[in-house]
Amino acid sequence: MSEQWLFLDTKPMSPAMNMALDEALLNWHSEGKIPPVLRFYTWEPAALSLGYFQKIRGKIDVEAVYRHGFELVRRPTGGRAVLHDHELTYSTIVSEQHEKMPQTVTEAYRVLSKGVLEGFRNLGLQAEFSIPEGKLPKTNSANCFDQPSWYELVVEGRKVAGSAQTRQKGVILQHGSVPIELDKDVLFDLFLYPNERVKQRARKSFEQKAISINELSREPKTIHDVKTAFKKGFEKGLNVDLKPFYLSQEQLAEVEELAETRYQTEAWTMSR
Q1: One of 116, 144, 226, 238 is an active-site residue; which one?
Q2: Which domain, by its residues, includes 261?
Q3: pTM for the whole thing?
């Protein structure tokens, strides 16, 4: 019999609200107020999210981010920068002590990413887990999609989803980006390079490393198509039954306060 998880499909939210809601769900789960959760979301406006430890200086072209109409937000999870535009973002919130959850971060990625794997397969794409040989090569790139890590998803050797994880208060929060379309020219405008030659070389190399759903699909997929495929994918991959969940006014107010006091502040976003 499948375990029941909550399923939250939120309307497009600001970057700060999206990050605050993921953190609030983690808090509520740690307090025993809600069972494990799968959440789907999109961004309005689009944004470049930074890993918790990621440095901005010399890596991110902040002026370019705003020039393109995007916002900048720092995630509570690690990893490198991700552009959230024309994509589906997911998050999973589950206790570290859950019987299905391995103790190591890498193996927990493998378990939680089964839902992502099945989602791609529901779209007719033969995704596989990335299993690097030996240690991952060091990279100076600030771009998340420049290199697949352990158990991230690849199709034909190219990365199709990027995920990040944190463990706080006994709870695992994993969230990830699934690009439906990817404007590589815009993406590479957001990062700083020593010169144009280095930038173009990185841009060319990136073509061989990352790809979006609609570059792989015979027919263009909509956000509805992707949500439908991935919801079924998570149900199968995690062997769970998803029950719709809606925020109360009290819960929404708590998220708004967290967004305002943390994720909207320059002190949080520009702190590294």
Answers
A1: 144
A2: 3-269
A3: 0.91
